[in-house]
Every structure is written in structure tokens, then in C-alpha cells.
Amino acid sequence: MKLVDIGALSKTSGLPTSTLRYYEEVGLIQPVCRNGLRRQYSEETIVQLALISLGKAAGFSLDDIGGMFDQDRNADLPRPTLLQRADELDRQIVRMTTMSRLLRHVAECPAPSHMDCPRFRKLLRVVCPSLPAAKAKPRAARAAEA
User: What does the alpha-carbon distance between residue 48 and residue 42 come to, in Å, rounded to a whole number?
Assistant: First the structure.
């Protein structure tokens, strides 16, 4: 087994040594031994760090990620949990796409007031479905009711 010094692991992974030490402290990675004062890791630790980075990018907490390794630090990815998180990301993508469209429309809408624009009101209700209908009515319609 080839060993990787903490400095080389830091350089390879792009993570500072302080992060590697923290990951060790919380049990996400383990050094195999020490060479003097420097921690030595197996090459497999690079794969573990890639999985940790992937998990963080997907929105998992470090605790969640820690549960995705078995006692020997091998990946044991829970497929149902991954599918659930993928579904959450899909919902988030829809919300963020809607928000992007809303912001673009607000920036470009020629209506004197955005609340007078039917498209703006429709997008507003998509972003905030609990918005009371009265809040979504255009000003002109509210004025006519008064």
C-alpha cells in the first residue's frame, strides 16, 4: 500500500491540511500512520475525499456523509437516500428557475407597476403559493373594487 503524506494529500485534494485534520477529528478519514509528526494516509483516502466533496456539493451534512462509509471507511452509499436528495435537488432547480424567470421579468417588464402585470403575479404565486389572492391582484383591480 502506497502512503500519502498529509501535505501531498492536501495538494492532490485541494483541501487545506486544517480541513483534513478536521475530517480526521470527526471520523471521515483516518491516517494509516505517522512519519515523524506528519500524518500518512492510504491512496484510497483521495477517493474518500472526492466522495466527501461530492456529498457536500449535493447538500449532505458531514454527519450524513459519515454515515455513507462503512466501518472500514469504504463507500456504502444508501441508494434510497441518494434518490430522495436527487428529488429534493430537482424541486430546488424548479424553484430557482422560476425565481430566475421572475427576476428577469421584473427587470424587463414594461408595466407601470409590477403588481399590474399578470405574468409577474402568476410567477409570484408560483414562488409563494401561500400568497393570499388579494395580495396578488393588480392595483388597478383593487382600486376598482374600492
Answer: 10
